[in-house]
Amino acid sequence: MHNLTEKDHFEYAWRHFTVIADQRLKTFNFYIIMVAAGVAATLAAFEKKEAAWIMFSVGVLNMVCAVVFFLIDERSRRLVEIPKMVLIEFEEAKDWKLFRTDAALQKTLWHKITSYTSAFRLAFFSQFVFGLVVVVAAIMSMFQDLQESLESGQRHRRHSIQEKTLQLPANQSSGIYRSQTPQWLPSPSLNSWRV
Fold first, then answer.
1. Do the beta carbons of residue 128 and residue 31 sit within 8 Å?
2. What is the domain partition of the chain in residue ranges?
3. Number of C-alpha atoms within 13 angstroms, CB side, residue 193?
4. DSSP-derived 3-state class of residue 44
5. Which end of the chain is more exposed for a tag (fewer CB within 10 A), N or C?
6. pTM
7. pLDDT confidence tier of residue 189, bands split at 50, 70 and 90
8. What does 37-95 look like in DSSP terms, one character per residue?
């Protein structure tokens, strides 16, 4: 290992850089597939309006997916910087300017905005916000369903109370409730009250 030439050092750093950079892009490609699956699951959950808990679960999964891929990408970004610094040192010794020019350009605002890191972060943030909106919509749907259920129960109780107060005894045929006189008392008549 001590007999490595300068070319071997350069190739080692270059292979390390390409493997990690390639891994970062492949991870993002897998992330795009996960986003498509997440959006499809969200749309399917919205079609089943009675299952707000499914919408809630899908929203949380969208948020978790965004956070997990953000963390994976942050690690890959840090790892890709290690061989990049070695390659920049190698370029300085040879007076090359590929990575040094890129490093200088990345200090400008426009190149920071148009970098892979910014694009990936925007995608992760967008999916997180999307998941958050789905979670909020699910919670609102749950509260609306609960409120409708409570109102329906109150209407049902009021209706049954009204029915009970309006019910007539079984032997009354008239719509007006009259107290019954016991059988052993003579029935009052209008003639008995005349003087």
1. no
2. 6-163
3. 4
4. helix
5. C
6. 0.68
7. low
8. HHHHHHHHHHH-TT-HHHHHHHHHHHHHHHHHHHHHHHHHHHHHHHHHHHHHHHHHHHT
